[in-house]
Design brief:
By secondary structure, the chain is α+β, with helices and mostly antiparallel strands.
Length: 785
């Protein structure tokens, strides 16, 4: 399965790894050891007793082979166990170093004797390991290390200083990188060693830092390491290091920190007056934390599914976004207390001191951006929609839609005045891409088979919207899909499918009440209502009108009844609907269109007769589907603008080099590329929920708010990167820029959407955590953990 086939599975099996962890954490011995770690006044408690208890129960290295102390499970199971432990408050640094890094090297490149000698002890918590990479003068430039390994009869002597190592005061082994002197460049001649930290010549000292976990300096003074403790080939350590670093950069540990800190902030806000003041931030950071988790699981699933080395760009993206998000959440959460340390929880106080190190460890954010930028302009489209393993049908449909839409826009900017002064995207059937979509049968994607459609679901519909946005095209498709949704929800027999809707021979347009005009007037009649008012619509030539009536409009009108009520009564007929949509043919008497200066239309209704069967309630599920399509469209707008700017930066030369070689430009585009990848996962997860029949209200509003802000940011940056050329018809990026201004607020401005998402999070925080715990959405399918 793929990200276009995201599904969910509840982990109800009590023998699952997650259930096993929860049961273990509830045991009195483990509970007591865990409580000791939370004792007040202890900044860096000794976690080894707890690890030994977990090791005896097989929970430290669940994905290792049983012969080495593991349970023989897979990487996804190990990640699920790590999630449960961190959520329960188990510190993870010692586990990351001992099992996830040093253990990984042994499994990846160790000899059978090395594995048998070290892995069982690491798995059961009787031995622990740390990592000795960084040196005082190297920082992120690991290949500049100066520690020297000199050969002697039977092994090597290591001399040098390693700094900023964590947990090296309590570990028994260390994985150390040293230079063995082979010629051939700075990436050759690096060898990896397992160093006994109790050996003669090893000196340890503390480097005091602001975080709870202190750094250590390890001085190696002619420390003898037998040849049996060399990991991998002598001089061949660099490929192993790069492969292991990619695995280390799944981002899961950072996303879990962000999740824990966000939850701590919500706990402080939930019953305080500050919650209302911070609603937009609550919504935004909650969505970004969840997006990071989706991205981390996508990386984990990709590593588990492939025998090849992890993709550097994908792992760098995960590390960059999750560490930056965790740092931002920590800083935001601490601002909530007004700067007073005494007003903050211990979790948030520690988070604030730990946060700066997150964007440094495992490679700085700048290093990650450099890796992301190195993929080039073509990869910058990167929403991972077409990668290997994608759903064959959707992949084929996307290719066909993209090709046809690409052909449809060829030459559209030859009239340069119209290209920059006309509509950014033509509405309705005048859109140049609409005939191509009709030819492919796209209008029927959302219609049921009995109505002449294909019933392909929201995932296929979102794909079409994304491609329309990518090519800066408008047209009636999103409103045709909305009409199909409305007709599905209408009472059986109350609505007939308009002939030709699924074939694309008739079109639909949605309209909302025009700001600045009197609200719609609704007068009940014996057959339904008479409605007057003013609506804004994009397409005056559409065959079917979908006019929104906000909840409560018309209440008290006429004989005291409103929309959805019978005359003389306030009893609603359309119960449970936040809004009502009226479906009208354009030839209904009393309709009048007026064209506006921006090329859209103003529709006036004057006592238009509306039978009851023409009013359709708008349940949450239908609103979610509409928001998901709009989010996908905005994702496409962002992707198209980013692709154009990246291609321009690659071919445009400034100061003698391509524009893309300048870090200021490369990093700006790389940051947006990372956000595009994460947003694509969020949109596809929301579409999957909709296809499963789940309301997914918050997933949909998260997707829309994220992509709305992303579209505004991406298009603005893209125009800036393209310089003055981006302001003209010479480049199509100006279309994306103008389109984003309208489309980013079509279904509500981002700030209002974030506040809505926040209220949902505050009301359902416990349920959300259960969902995150039990449901893992990944790029290639579900994990039950």
């Amino acid at each position: 399965m793929t990200v276009d086939e995201l599904t969910y599975t509840a982990a109800r099996d009590r023998t699952s790894p997650r259930a096993r962890v929860r049961a273990t954490l509830a045991e009195p011995e483990v509970r007591e050891l865990l409580d000791r770690l939370a004792a007040p006044g202890v900044r860096e408690p000794d976690v080894r007793p707890l690890y030994r208890a977990l090791g005896r129960r097989g929970l430290l290295a669940v994905n290792w082979p049983e012969e080495y102390g593991g349970l023989g499970l897979d990487l996804a199971d190990a990640a699920a166990v790590a999630e449960e432990l961190v959520r329960a408050g188990v510190p993870d640094t010692l586990h990351v170093n001992s099992v996830q890094i040093v253990g990984l090297f042994l499994l990846m490149a160790g000899t059978p004797e090395q594995k048998s000698r070290h892995l069982p002890a690491l798995a059961d918590g009787t031995a622990f390991a740390s990592v000795l990479y960084t040196e005082p003068g190297t920082g992120s430039d690991l290949a500049a290390l100066e520690t020297v390994a000199t050969a002697y009869d039977g092994g090597f002597e290591l001399t040098g200083t390693k700094s900023f190592s964590l947990k090296s005061d309590i570990t028994d082994l260390a994985l150390c990188a040293a230079r063995t002197g082979e010629p051939g460049g700075r990436y050759r001649g690096i060898t990896l060693f397992l160093v006994d930290l109790h050996a003669p010549g090893v000196h340890r000292e503390v480097i005091h830092g602001i975080a709870d976990e202190q750094f250590h300096r390890i001085t190696l003074d002619a420390v003898r390491v037998p040849a049996a403790d060399v990991i991998g080939p002598v001089g061949g350590g660099w490929p192993l290091l790069t492969k292991a670093l990619a695995v280390e950069r799944t981002g899961l540990d950072y996303s879990l920190k962000a999740e824990r800190w966000y939850a701590a902030a919500l706990a402080e806000l939930r019953d305080s007056a500050a919650a209302e003041e911070n609603l937009a931030e609550i919504g935004r950071y909650g969505a970004e934390v969840e997006a990071g988790r989706l991205l981390s699981w996508d990386v984990i699933d990709g590593i588990a599914a492939s025998t090849d080395a992890p993709d550097d760009v994908v792992t760098a993206t995960a590390k960059y976004l999750t560490s930056e998000t965790a740092q931002q959440v920590a800083c935001w959460a601490n601002r909530l207390a007004g700067g007073s340390p005494t007003a903050r929880s211990a979790v948030l106080e520690a988070a604030y001191r730990e946060a700066p190190g997150l964007t440094l460890s495992a490679g700085t954010s700048e290093v990650m951006l450099q890796i992301i930028a190195s993929a080039g302009a073509e990869e910058a489209q990167g929403v991972q929609a077409d990668r290997a393993g994608a759903d064959p049908l959707l992949r084929q449909l996307r290719a066909a839609v993209r090709d046809r839409l690409g052909a449809a826009v060829l030459g559209r900017d030859q009239d340069t005045a119209r290209a920059v002064h006309g509509p950014s995207a033509l509405p309705g059937a005048t859109c140049p891409g609409w005939p191509a979509l009709v030819e492919l049968g796209v209008p029927g994607f959302d219609a049921p088979v009995e109505a002449g459609g294909f019933d392909l679901g929201v995932r296929a519909s979102a794909m079409v919207c994304e491609e329309l946005g990518r090519h800066a095209l408008g047209g009636p498709y999103r409103d045709v899909a909305l009409a199909a949704d409305l007709l599905r929800t209408a009472a059986p027999g109350s609505q007939e499918w308009p002939a030709g809707l699924a074939e694309g021979t008739i079109t639909a347009v949605a309209g909302a009440p025009e700001p600045g005009h009197a609200p719609p007037a609704v007068v009940p009649t014996g057959y339904g209502w008479e409605i007057s008012g003013t609506w804004g619509v994009d397409d005056a030539a559409a065959d079917v009108l979908l006019l929104t009536l906000p909840a409560g409009v018309g209440a008290g009108a006429g004989a005291g009844a409103g929309v959805g009520t019978t005359p003389g009564s306030r009893e609603p007929l359309l119960t449970g609907a936040a809004e009502t949509v009226v479906l009208l043919p354009r030839d209904r008497p009393g309709l009048r269109f007026e064209m506006t200066a921006d090329g859209t239309a103003r529709l006036r209704l004057d006592r238009v007769a509306v039978p009851r069967e023409d009013a359709v309630p708008v349940p949450d599920g239908l609103l979610a589907r509409r928001r998901i399509r709009q989010a996908a469209y905005l994702l496409g707008v962002s992707t198209g603008a980013h692709a154009e700017a990246s291609a321009y930066a690659a071919r445009r030369r400034q100061f003698g080099v391509p524009l893309s070689d300048h870090q200021a430009v490369a990093f700006a585009l790389a940051d947006l590329k990372a956000r595009l990848i994460a947003a694509g996962l969020v949109v596809r997860r929301a579409a999957a929920l909709a296809d499963q029949g789940r309301t997914g209200a918050r997933a949909a509003v998260d997707a829309l708010a994220l992509t709305a802000e992303l579209a505004l940011d991406t298009t603005r940056t893209a125009v800036h990167v393209c310089g003055v050329h981006g302001l003209t018809a010479e480049l199509g990026v100006q279309r994306h820029y103008r389109l984003a201004r309208v489309e980013a607020v079509r279904l509500g401005p981002p700030q209002r959407l974030w506040r809505e998402a926040a209220r949902l999070r505050l009301a359902h925080a416990a349920a959300d955590l259960d969902l995150l715990t039990d449901l893992n959405f990944t790029a290639r399918g579900p994990h039950t953990g």
